[in-house]
Design a protein that fits this description.
The complex is a heterodimer. Chain A is α+β, with helices and mostly antiparallel strands. Chain A is 37% helix and 13% strand. In chain A, the strands form three sheets. Chain A has a four-stranded antiparallel sheet, with no helix packed on it. Chain A has a two-stranded antiparallel ribbon with strand order 1-2. A two-stranded antiparallel ribbon of chain A has the order 3-4. In chain A, helix 3 runs antiparallel to helix 4. By secondary structure, chain B is of the alpha+beta class. Chain B has eleven helices and 15 strands. In chain B, the strands form five sheets. Chain B has a five-stranded antiparallel sheet, with no helix packed on it. In chain B, strands 7-10-14-13 form a four-stranded antiparallel sheet, covered by helices on one side. In chain B, strands 1-2 form a two-stranded antiparallel sheet. In chain B, helix 6 packs parallel to helix 8. The chains are: A alpha+beta, B alpha+beta. At the A-B interface, strand 4, helix 2, helix 3 and helix 4 of A face helix 1, helix 2, strand 1, helix 9 and helix 10 of B.
Amino acid sequence: MKHPVHFFIILLCLTTWNVFAEKILDHDVVLDPQSGQLQAWTSYDNILSWSMNFLKFCPEVETSHGKDPLYLVTSKLNMDGTYRDKQNNPGSNVYWGMETFKKYYAYTGDRDALAPVQKLIERVAKYHTPLDWAWPDVPPALRMIPRMVNIRMNGAELTSSVW
Amino acid sequence: MVAIGYIQYSKYCQDDIYVHKAERIANTIIQHIIPGDAEHSPLPFRVNLKTGEVVDPYCSNMILAVQLFDELLKQSACSLDKKLLAEKRELLIQWILKYPMRNHFWSGYYEDVQSNFDNLNQQNPMETARYLLNRPETDPDYKTHVPELIQWVKNRFGQVTRYGATSIKEQDGCFKEMSSHTARYASVVAKWYGVCQDPQVREEARASFALATYSAYNKYSKDNISINYTGIEYAEPWFSDSYWDYLPHILDGIAELPEMLPQDKDHLFYSSSTVLDIKYDDKNISYATADQDGIERFKLTFTPVVYANGKPLDKSFWRFGSFRGVDNILIIERKGINEIEVRGEN
């Protein structure tokens, strides 16, 4: 190289780019070079399929039902996607899960995307209120009626069952 | 919400058992509907299901019950009194238009907060706006109400912008920017763009969608399996906010803003019906819908010919060209047909 100093300047720019690049959460901010408008950091197709992959291959925990995907037993996760004990909200997930599947299936033809919400629906459908209650045969919110499952991790009970 | 999910699921599993389960939920709900007023919604937000004691009497999210009754009214397998269903549906609509649409008391959705009356949120007004855009015949003033709802949410929950993109917070009780709500807002704004055709509205939606991508595929993700933060101000993922109440809004956005589509893939990106079966092959897409009449939009990598029942479909029912500035878009308008094949032109 005729001008090694140029090489080192370029190398310095390249290596420091990531240090000084602006970020939103974990991703470098992408702006349109002409307009300066904010752009998606990756394609929307990637967002959709990678997110669906997490649901399809969701981590499991052992419960009184056997091995359950985490979406059957908790509403919230740790940042690394591991189990976190939090009140479940399966009712809204049933609705939004079907909204997701209906649109995602038409968009991709991926029928396997039904499995997570199918499991959720079949579980929720088992636990309607008794027929002699004031509001009979409806799925309960779990704040009023405690967990439908035992969760066991490392052999220890984390929550108790009422059903 | 569960009952609507059951009905949607029944369309794919071909089992009326879930329609009947939804019917029984609706039957219970109907027994508890009251006329309502400014402080009491027709259905309460929170009750003791065993005793019937009302714990929180106000919930502005009545549009979900309206949706449920809409679905049941369409179901031939439903044995409920459809006249009664239609009357209760109308009661709910009139209550929405008389109270929260005017006083903007949009509270009562999130179940993990104590009392909801003073805790307003963006979810209920945006989902009400989405319904009005999908069913404009419901409200003769929807072209006034929808932009009012968008503006109300932006003023109350969207004061923060990031690189020009409106970022939406969830509720007064958890006043944090979250991608599901930013994407929800963007999807309603995009749908409104489909009506008003205002380029500023389009840019508002596009920018918020772009912002909403940044919570996906966090630093713990790998192998194309995405762990998604809830949002800029809330790290821990939720199955709702990070996935199921996030992804459909992106798909709704793609339906209205075809610039969000990739250039190199074939996609059905909008259907007015439910697509029950679809197969993507090389230069060939075949699909079946729940309804005989409907509209589909595709982004294609090939020049298509459309077939119905094995024969070429008259060209008056489809066109291929530009849609909202994006090329290679196929639009099919079906009448009395629910099985279509799109083939590459020889």
